[in-house]
Amino acid sequence: MSNLTLEHPRRYEVFQRRDGQAEVPIRITGLSEPAAQVAILGAGGKVAARCELPAVQGTAEGAPTVPEGGWYTVAVRHGGRRVRLGTFGVGDVLVIAGQSNAAGHGDGFIADRTGLVSVWTESGDWILANQPEGMPGGMGAGSPWPVLGELLHLSEQVPIGFVNAAVGGTSTEQWQPGGELYAGLKQALTGRRVRAVLWHQGESDQISGFTTEQTRQNMERIINQSRQDAGWQVPWYVALVSHTADAPQEARERTRAAQQWLYRAGLALPGPDTDTHVPESMRYDRLHFGRVGLEVHAILWFRALHFAGR
After folding, report:
1. Is the pTM of this model over 0.85?
2. Which CATH superfamily is domain 91-306 in?
3. Which fold has domain 5-89?
């Protein structure tokens, strides 16, 4: 019985809900019985779902339908006992892309306080967003996403998961399909449903002197290819962002005009306007967000997601 292992789902993994539920892929190895009697347990041990998974050479696989909620525990009847194997949730998954203020290069880590927000790591594991250790990229330095996750959980009462593909100092040219950065975005969307992609980028395009048409075309290719690769119309939210210290207003407006075009064309939904609502007084180096800036950034994203289409 000591060899019984839950290979999927991973601990603290979040599955995107649709119509209040999700099909959760389960893979259990090390079985010595012809089938796995599986129960999905919620708070207080209440059973949220049951299924029987036939075992082939000690391995049982299936995808029971589980209602939104969590954290859930996978429990298996084995050897006359109920063995608890792992923890997962059904809620909302958000993919993050863009550059440094999306990647998490803020001044000071702010932890989620609900215990129901998790982050995917490059190793394929999920970790709770309540401490900086183990966070991917710069997220352990200072990120708005644990704060946003806390706000979303408190509003919607489901676990929230983040997959962060953002990379600091990058332009839309570097994110083009076929390149290394796009490969990370594609991986984030492969094989999983998500609530949306949240894109916060524009500083590098403005610094590089990209025309409105350059940024517009680059973004159009990224968004369209991501949907083709995912196999469905992944929602995109694109922030209005072009700010760098002492940048001419004309240069900023070129980038912002491209982002606004995406809204009018129906390719993306409006994200927050951080140029306007996160002033330099909230940026520790006139570019990257300080602690207050991170909290404001999270609140702006919450507002964009919560009031989308209203």
Report:
1. yes
2. SGNH hydrolase (3.40.50.1110)
3. Immunoglobulin-like (2.60.40)
